[in-house]
Amino acid sequence: MPVTVRIPTPLRQVTKGNAEVSAKGGTVDDVVADLERQFPGLKERLVDETGELRRFINIYVNEEDIRFMDGKKTALKDGDAVSIVPAIAAAAKVRWCRGPDARAADVSP
């Protein structure tokens, strides 16, 4: 069951510059394994030695945070969109837009 995986800029060096890739799997965990098969070295950037998602990595399925679903066991279906988002991206954007002393609360949606 293929899904589209959106790759953040810092990880695109591993995916040969691709911003989106296709992966197969019935769960997020399966997709991570398929991504590793296609792009060796990607998994170690997403999960730690114990197999848990790194704390600075957020994964969304169809814009829903998997932390509020079934985590890595979140079920996927054909055509789902999986987004990998480094947690630091929002903070860096806030500082870039508002200056080094900006806080997340300073940015309106």
Span between termini: 34 Å
Number of strands: 5
Major sheet: 5 strands, mixed
Order of helices and strands: EEHHEEEH
The pLDDT mean sits at: 85
Helix and strand content put the structural class at alpha+beta
Percent of residues in β-strands: 15-25%
Radius of gyration: 15 Å
Strand order of the largest sheet: 2-1-5-3-4
Question: Globular, elongated, flat, extended or rod-shaped: what is the shape?
Answer: globular
- Low-pLDDT ranges: 89-100, 102-109
Our count of helices gives: 3
Fraction of residues in H or I helices: 10-25%
Architecture overview:
By secondary structure, the protein is α+β, with helices and mostly antiparallel strands. Helix content is about 25%, strand content about 20%. The protein contains three helices and five strands; from the N terminus they run E-E-H-H-E-E-E-H. It has helices at about 30-40, 45, 90-100, and strands spanning about 1-5, 20-25, 55-60, 65, 80-85. The model is unreliable at about 90-100 and about 100-109 (pLDDT under 50).
Outline the secondary-structure elements.
Blueprint: E1 2-6, E2 20-24, H1 28-38, H2 43-46, E3 57-61, E4 64-65, E5 81-86, H3 88-98
